[in-house]
């Protein structure tokens, strides 16, 4: 459970980094396109299935993006608080848990829609490709953030 929570937090953080306003980050459309390119190369779909799945994929990704946009606002408010104010950890924790529950509900809806257009084996391949994409993102994070002297493994 903890491993999943930390992975979700890491993915959430990476989505937040992509969405920083005024930065030189890529747009959400580019993020979606890169993920779709990865998935479509991993899962061989015929043209008809690919068109159906692509529209469902974009719908799901947009819903997830909007879900995390709400949380970005909560975190933004906490960063801009006055120095004498305490961080409202309860609000942050509530938002994180609610986001995970909502994400699970959205994923179930996405899965039920996929079941109408794909067979179970192909859906499984798609889900495995999505996990592989997440692993790839996590593995690239250390390349984007140089190590600070004094930080390292603590064993």
The topology string of helices and strands comes to HHHHH
Instruction: Work out the strand percent.
Output: under 5%
Average pLDDT, all residues: 81
Using only C-alpha atoms, the radius of gyration works out to: 18 Å
Number of strands: 0
- How many domains is the backbone divided into? 1
**Unreliable residue runs:** none
3D shape: globular
Structural class: mainly alpha
Number of helical segments with 4 or more residues = 5
What is the helix content?
over 70%
The major sheet is characterized as: none
Q: Give the terminus-to-terminus CA distance.
A: 22 Å
Architecture blueprint of SSEs:
Layout: H1 2-18, H2 28-42, H3 47-79, H4 89-117, H5 120-144
Structure description:
This protein has 155 residues and is mostly helical. The protein has one domain. The protein is built from five helices and no strands. Helix 2 (28-42) crosses helix 3, helix 2 (28-42) crosses helix 5 (120-144) and helix 3 (47-79) runs antiparallel to helix 4. The chain is globular and about 60 Å long. The model has no long low-confidence stretch (mean pLDDT 81).
Summarize the structure.
The protein has helices spanning 2-18, 28-42, 47-79, 89-117, 120-144. With 155 residues, it is mainly α. The longest helix is centred in the middle third of the chain and has 33 residues, at 47-79.
